[in-house]
Amino acid sequence: MGRIIGVANQKGGVGKTTTAINVAASLGVLEYRTLLVEARAKDVILKTEIPNLDLIPSHIDLVGAEIEMINYPSREMVLKNILEPIRRDYDFIVIDCSPSLGLITVNALTAADSVIVPVQCEFFALEGLGKLLNTIKIVQSRLNTALVIEGILMTMYDGRLRLCNQVVSEVRRHFEDMVFSTIIHRNARLSEAPSVGKPVILYDANSKGSMNYLNLAKEILQKNNLTKIKQEERIPISYLITKSAPS
Questions:
Q1: Whole-number Å distance between alpha carbons of 194 and 176
Q2: Which DSSP symbol is given to 159?
Q3: Which of 22, 33, 110, 150 would bridge with 213, disulfide CB 3.0–4.6 Å?
Q4: Does the CA dihedral 88-116-69-144 come out positive or negative?
């Protein structure tokens, strides 16, 4: 049965959609059947340029979904009930959450097995993170006892800035093993890819952004003992730390 991973943080501009798109694309390139969810399923799953990557797209009407769902019975379970019949068709289902802690995000956390929390390498990196972690705890206790944090992902890292190094150190000091070894660097190709409607791995496979997200996908696979490669061929986590570490 496929693993469902939400990508959530109520703070906007931290790289949630970028992470959802590119980690899903990287998993697809690594030959894992992957579905990227940007909205409720509407009996439509679109194929993409990557053979192992399908997509359920978002829509502007999603902004009104929370109001419409208020009176639904078991309204927190809507997305879970929609995804259950198709999760066996995939190795991974990645859900891009909205920048809020509303009903849509709660639906995603209720449906998910785990959640990736992108955190921007900036001064207010930890702002609101406590509220998100508290929401996750509430969902764990009331709606989804199996939900775990896949990891905290440091994004938009610029090695030239002392502040970025300080933020990474502070987050790792606070959350230790919860933080991914892989760090997502600021990268022009990563920023340009959405303008042509492509994940960065199709836009520029040799870019730093592409390499970062491939490393993240491999780290997720290794962390969950899901990699298809032999043990002796796996990329050591220490190597990922070295390649992604602040310099």
A1: 32
A2: T
A3: 22
A4: positive
